[in-house]
Amino acid sequence: MNIKIIGSNCSNGIKLRKLLLKIANNYDEDVExxxxxxxxxxxxxxxxxxxxxxxxxxxxxEGNVPSDREIIKFMKSxxxx
Length: 81
Hints:
The protein is of the alpha+beta class. It is 42% helix and 23% strand. Strand 1, helix 1 and strand 2 (32-36) form a beta-alpha-beta unit.
């Protein structure tokens, strides 16, 4: 599973990275976390408010830090499909 944090150097981006590292350590599947801070990524995923969270190429959230439950639920539903 590939997870991208777009805008990872802001305060919420740092919180999101810590949360994702905690989730990834307890997740059954291999999780790759990429940190992106470039304008190309913002445009590619249409992120207007950072941080943006992209899981397997699909934008999950932007402008906030979702709860660990929301992230895990989305990750599990995505692996089933």
